[in-house]
Request: fold
Amino acid sequence: MKISSFAAHSVKAKLQPHTIERRALGRSDVLIEIEYCGVCHTDLHFVNNDWGMTEYPVVPGHEIVGRVSEVGPEVEKFKVGDFAAIGCMVNSCGECSSCKSGIEQYCLQGFSATYNAPVNDPGGFTFGGYSQRIVADESFVLNLPENLSLSGAAPLLCAGITTYSPLQYWTVETGMKVGVVGLGGLGHMGVKFSHAMGAHTVMITSTPEKGEDAKILGADEVLVSTDGYSMNKEVGEFDFILNTIPVDHNIGPYMDLLKVDGTMCVVGAVEPLKQVNAAQLIFGRKKLSGSLIGGIQQTQEMLNFCGNNNIVSEVEIIKMDQIQEAFERLVKSQVKYRFVIDIKSMANA
Amino acid sequence: MKISSFAAHSVKAKLQPHTIERRALGRSDVLIEIEYCGVCHTDLHFVNNDWGMTEYPVVPGHEIVGRVSEVGPEVEKFKVGDFAAIGCMVNSCGECSSCKSGIEQYCLQGFSATYNAPVNDPGGFTFGGYSQRIVADESFVLNLPENLSLSGAAPLLCAGITTYSPLQYWTVETGMKVGVVGLGGLGHMGVKFSHAMGAHTVMITSTPEKGEDAKILGADEVLVSTDGYSMNKEVGEFDFILNTIPVDHNIGPYMDLLKVDGTMCVVGAVEPLKQVNAAQLIFGRKKLSGSLIGGIQQTQEMLNFCGNNNIVSEVEIIKMDQIQEAFERLVKSQVKYRFVIDIKSMANA
Reply:
């Protein structure tokens, strides 16, 4: 099965059309004609080989939505013509305690990522959603509520579940005061979800200009982190804080905002945090944690929640040949709030 | 009420007998003739003014056991002759959400520490257990099971509750694998409690020689943290880790030992931790937390638990005039596992 696709070869991200071979449709596989694919910062890290683990040619993309065009004989959840979605995972061991608990994202063998993961299929690695088609086992394919905008739904598969999962795990609900730190691709979904779950939601940002947007997205309040007076007034007031800042930073001022027994969950900065003070943990029994996407069942729940609450991501749609420019703007945080590639723009590539 | 006591004035800890005045017995107060007082590292920090907050003369000591010699007219829990104990707190606001939840150690107004806390009583500050007598409101005085050795029970009031409380909070029980990092005053109590709660208890130490002792104290296994092979074999195996190391250190190798969703609680190092990697929190939804002593009700539960399970601290009894030497040995970790002052040795001071 030859599928015209797209691959990024060089650290300068000189992207070139590329023909890769996808695996033949297996008995429980679904073939999806991709319509939109979100652009996650992780994609750029892989294109640039920032983490030293990229296998070229890489086809990024793990925020994938489209329509089913073919199903294997044992497929039960999908029929041709259905909307379908794929997120960050396309397989896991299925045997370990994590997989058996439905948290495949913590598979003890390591889940198979949607792109750049070693597999026995043609090409030797998985290829992601910057592509016209994708084949995956139905157990890792999600049903997409029909009422959602397809382009807006794409980022739910990574940015959405990455923020929904910790808010659910730490049981965010009415009566709680929840802070979301950082208003980007992750943060704007955090605000929408926290609001929809009924919590008093506070956008915490260093950029006062983002305040108006945050309120439109669902924030009840905006707290400017550089305003010492306001920060001081909020010390000890928050039940839960979702921290989406993508790089190391001083977490101390945010830990101060937590109540006794409160938790701050980091989902952005996958790196060493050089300013963690154990005294802040000890005096208040506070928790610092992290969270990675979500399990398949929870991802489906999140999509259903979005369908019921009419939640999608705020997106800027681009054509495939605008990806280089999009990457450059992504680095400068010049996007509200997620780029999504219109895969139809590849038709003539 | 003049009571012969003992105060440490100088940063060189040149301790001198000193006469301080304690408050007159209030209506709900208890007067305790102190028999033993444990020596906590915090005492030395205060004597040396390491934290820049010491008010001299300071009378340290918050691991206090003795016998009631007088009670106010409204006292209900104690009668003259009862064993009684006082830990790190002698008062709290009683009004805040923490106090109302029985976690006075996290009182939002700050609890009144047993020594060096500002009060309206004579002297202007609380005075602790390196002293022949102490007066406190009965609501902060604990009942001591009659079957426990008095000297061995003294350290339960700080080292005991500091380790018991997090083990209870994180619901340590049979079927769990629990690590205790560091075998000192705190760690040896952590091992005893974790064992008594039914967990498979692993002493994690950089000092192989401590292994035999740890097993006598109740450890099922000993894991030497400098043995890379053994540490690697235990990656992802622990439900909970109690970290009693008193100074900053690289927590990474211990975080690796945790299962998905596992927690490490820091009770020793009240200072910045310079090596925390958010990636370790994110890949496994692991929690880093801390814990401070315990509430009054939980401290009583801990003492009852000790009475039922015949648990006391391992102690070396010293005379009051050996305190300087004891402090010096404490700094060198030359004690198994807690110094306790025989307060009767002050009789002729």
Remarks:
- The CA atoms of residues 181 and 204 of chain A lie 5 Å apart.
